[in-house]
UniProtKB/TrEMBL annotation:
Belongs to the group II decarboxylase family. The modification N6-(pyridoxal phosphate)lysine is found at K290. It comes from Nosocomiicoccus ampullae. Keywords: Decarboxylase, Lyase, Pyridoxal phosphate. The lineage of its organism: Bacteria, Bacillati, Bacillota, Bacilli, Bacillales. GO terms for molecular function: aromatic-L-amino-acid decarboxylase activity; pyridoxal phosphate binding. This is Glutamate/tyrosine decarboxylase-like PLP-dependent enzyme. Its cofactor is pyridoxal 5'-phosphate. SUPFAM superfamilies: PLP-dependent transferases. The keyword NADP does not apply. CDD domains: DOPA_deC_like. One of its GO terms (cellular component) is cytoplasm.
Amino acid sequence: MNFNEKNIDLETIIRDEVNKYLNQDVSRLNATEQAPKELTQKYEKMPIPKVGRDIYEVLSELNNEVLTYLYRPNHKRAFSFIPGPASRLSWLGDILTTANNIHASNFKNATLPISIERNLINYLADKIGYEVKPSGGVFVSGGSMANLTAVVTARDRKVSLDKLTKTTVYLTSQTHHSGRKALHVAGFPSENIRIIDHNEDFTMNVSHLKETVEKDVKNGYIPALVISTAGTTNTGAVDDFNKIADICEAYNIWQHVDGAYGASHLLSTKGKSLFKGIERSDSVTWDAHKLLFQTYSCAMIIVKDKNNLINSYGEKAEYLDDITSDDDVIDPEMLGIELTRPARAVKLWLTLQVIGEDEFRKRIDYGQELAEYTKDYVESLDDFEIISQPSLSILSFRYYNDSFTDEENDHLNNLAAKKLADSGYGVAYTTTLNNKKVFRMCTINPETTESDIKETIDRLNRYILEEVKEK
């Protein structure tokens, strides 16, 4: 073993790096910045040295290059994707759990961190409307892993593996792509994935779902799973869980709700009214590294009956006999895919304990208010139109001038989004809705102001008008 670390004053270095971060004003940095090609090549081809390098030289590269060219999801003018405006309390929790190198697989290895995880799963299950017993769940890396965990659980509960070729699943074009990825990994044939129409507000068309299920049953298929969404990434749309549950209960279908983004609105004042019937679902994906303001990665899969998780993931290993729990105390490794796993729940617990639920509610409500402000401001501008109304904290809009072709208008919207990102001031990338290129904004950062939104939209407008003048 190389003990070169003994010659390094790590205590001072760590203190200096932490202070540097604490004194950093992210809003003064570029919201996004792309690394030049020469740096990409430098790090892709950098050799591993036979003899270690000077730590200050390596830290200089890390701080001035590697950590400079990034998309910053915690920037107050980062409106694309689902931003990750993480609390510094979460960051602190991350530091402390990582420093202790916790192996959070079972109670005997990490009794209190896992007790915290179990407590938070119960807290969140109650917010969904599940009974604390027999509901359960586990913290995972993100929405993709949560969706995969749910899909495999649903498969094992509803169909035998030898009948997968006759098993059908249902989702819309607005379902997050991780749902389709999970279905592929779980072995569902792609030709058995039914894409259900969506309504004008981008929610699942329940009439089409019912017709499709009935047709499949008539043709000898086994409907097994519907993936509904609580807050789609594109528009923030929330499906009608009650109507979907009626169909699922009639045909013995598992309803999984992908609430990676939207489920946190169950803590809000206004948004939670959209979630009626979510308690009738069988499982819910919920990301804490979105609207619960946690650092990556921190997400949960929560099921109405934890025995279904145990059925899929409760394998036995002899070398774990001495540390395996029994009775009502179920080790996390028996509820999901991971054995080696960090104590993700601790940082969320720290944040909730210090900030409190009321403050979370205020922050989530504020994001919805900002979305409404964005709508009002866009509507005050010439040649701009709202494409999807604010839902939760997401809306979309576009520049449209009937003097130009659809292709030309799409080009103008794309160009303005690129120029905004290149400037570093903010990020409001486009998406495609109804075959139109549109700006999409997600306004969930508690530090974002109305001035930030106004200036972002003004810049988009200015970039477009500059291009129009040159035509």
